[in-house]
């Protein structure tokens, strides 16, 4: 049966920029979700009267929810679209945040566990779907912007942490803290979703539907190129995720510094990541992704090596700065590479996102096992090996010819 082709609808430059700001808001909201809990974890433990052991077991509920989400998020996004998935995921996240607050208020461990599981489930699913939206908007803009989107996630975490610290200083009850963050996140997401567009924007509708119907998530998992991009993202995701979990502890345990210096080390890494994402985007647009990623992966390797083998903490801090700059562009640019084929972008981005977030979630606990036996800094050698693999795989992120031509026209 022959189907007639339909003309794709067009957005004005103003509408595309509005869409861009909406995606930035989604990433900012995701950062707020993360910082809302992390800044008040001591209050959660105190409110439930839990020691570190039971507290760690309780937090596994969030990890389990996140792992569950990344295993099926790609299929859901491919079937229902990113906008619907983001709405459902954030509804789950906000419900979880509210239950965590109420669970602590009523001193109910089961209620808190359900809340943590829902927040982990919703956060992971929304991250995958938001990346699909992000690369679709990037295609519409005609220039690299995904690092800036992930930079807004970092801004959300920093701003959320600052407000959380202020709330702690003012004595704001934990339940009020979580409820207020839930309301703000919900408002940001509702505002954003009314301004987002379909990830199939700019395609011939009939051709898009035929392609999407034929190309499934399982096909992307069998696609060698997609998997190689995913392995690249896995390495750079480990470089970022391991720092988030282990830098402060490595400074205090292995370097023998104070907790304040440990916190300062984590802050140094986060700031370097932000600078790299906002400053590196212009370099991506000017020199192309492969060259810049080879440079940044090399910086990550150099910074990690300095941090692992430095004899003094001052040199270790230099390593942290270089490590953060080097790790800043890999994950978001990997999302861009997965979207090069517009007809398969949603499915391929969801698969690469799944690989990346699995590294974020599963890598740090495994590093903890290595650190238990060999020390945290020595355990980071495993991350160094994976970043070397990412450096080797940068050639897999070479843009398609038609995308290069598009960028050349629009930049």
Describe the structure concisely:
The chain is an all-alpha fold and 411 residues long. The chain folds into two domains: 13-197, Growth Hormone, Chain: A (Up-down Bundle); 212-410, MFS general substrate transporter like domains (Growth Hormone, Chain: A, Up-down Bundle), CATH 1.20.1250.20.
The total beta strand count reads 0
The pLDDT mean sits at 84
Summarize the biggest pleated sheet: none
Q: How many whole angstroms does the radius of gyration measure?
A: 21 Å
User: Residue share in helices?
Assistant: over 70%
Description:
- It is built from 18 helices and no strands.
- It has 411 residues and is mostly helical.
- Helix 11 (259-287) packs antiparallel against helix 12 (289-309).
- The chain is globular.
- The protein starts with 12 loop residues before the first helix and ends with a helix.
- Residues 1-7, 204-212 and 402-411 have low confidence and may be disordered.
Write the layout of secondary structure elements.
Elements: H1 13-38, H2 41-48, H3 52-80, H4 82-105, H5 109-141, H6 146-170, H7 174-193, H8 205-214, H9 217-221, H10 224-254, H11 259-287, H12 289-309, H13 313-327, H14 330-338, H15 345-374, H16 376-379, H17 381-392, H18 401-410
Helix pairs in contact: 1-5, 1-6, 1-7, 3-4, 3-5, 3-15, 4-5, 4-7, 5-15, 6-11, 6-14, 10-11, 10-13, 10-14, 10-15, 10-17, 11-12, 11-13, 12-13, 12-17, 14-15
